[in-house]
Amino acid sequence: MSESVSYFVMLFKAVSYALKAEKILKAEKLPHKLIPVPKEISSDCGICLRCEPSFQEVIQAALAGKVEFEEIRQMVN
Amino acid sequence: MGEIKIVNATGLACPQPVVLAKQAIEANEQVKVIVDNDTALENVKRLGNKLGCDVKVEAQNGGLFEILLTRQAGAPVPSENIAVSCNAAPSTAGPFVIVCAEDKMGRGNDELGDVLMRAFLHTICLEKAKPDVLIFYNTGVKLTVQGSEVLDDLKEMAAAGVELLVCGTCLNYFEIKDQLAVGIVSNMYDIAQTMSRAGRLLTP
Q1: What confidence tens digit (pLDDT) does each residue in B139-149 have?
Q2: What is the pTM of this model?
Q3: From chain B, which residues contact A within 8 Å (Cβ)?
Q4: Can you spell out the DSSP letters for chain A?
Q5: Domain spanning B94-202 has what CATH number?
């Protein structure tokens, strides 16, 4: 029971991958948010998907075989 | 108490006097800055006020001014965030205003512009120094209605005290007035006035 809200971010190879993933999650009604890649991960001007940990499995399953992602990072607020 | 650090900024052009004063007050409790013109005087005074210093000015012979800056107990430690301004007018006095004139950021590709706008507003929302006012007009008003991808960020900013002015004419034109989900329906009087009075006006 931690006080800090944590989330995870999915990082993609390119902006187009992130947008494709977003379209799929939107269609599946899975909660997510497109955000700039956190500065501590990369100083590039990239975007990534921010999601709640409780949805990690279902989100990964929804994207499996459709959109490749590079990495998942757990984040602490 | 340390000694008073003397900064002779006579003969220097803006922004040097302010830069030197800022560096000095970061390292010393008390700084006396000597300047030879009104612009430098105003700028250094404003810097001192912004940093929460006690500011005393003494006019000297030959058109010189001595500005004594004294750091106050409990005053914020000077940070990088203090902008050094060359403008003698009180430009920083007005509110920090961000104008969303479109629902996209930049021109050229709409899909990309949409992503950039969302990323921009999210980043602004996370900033400690939030804008005082956000203004939305033309397609920018679409950011404030139901179904907008940036509603969460806008609502968070509204809750944090940011004023959101949404152009009523524009909501009306797009026939989405009944879908407004954040901010207040505003008019050209308020919008034009807020923009005119802005200390800083930023358009993504």
Answers
A1: 999 999 999 99
A2: 0.62
A3: 111-112, 115, 118-119, 122-123, 149, 152
A4: --SS-EEEEEE-SSHHHHHHHHHHHHHTT---EEEEPPTTT-SS--EEEEE-GGGHHHHHHHHTTT----EEEEEE-
A5: 3.40.1260.10
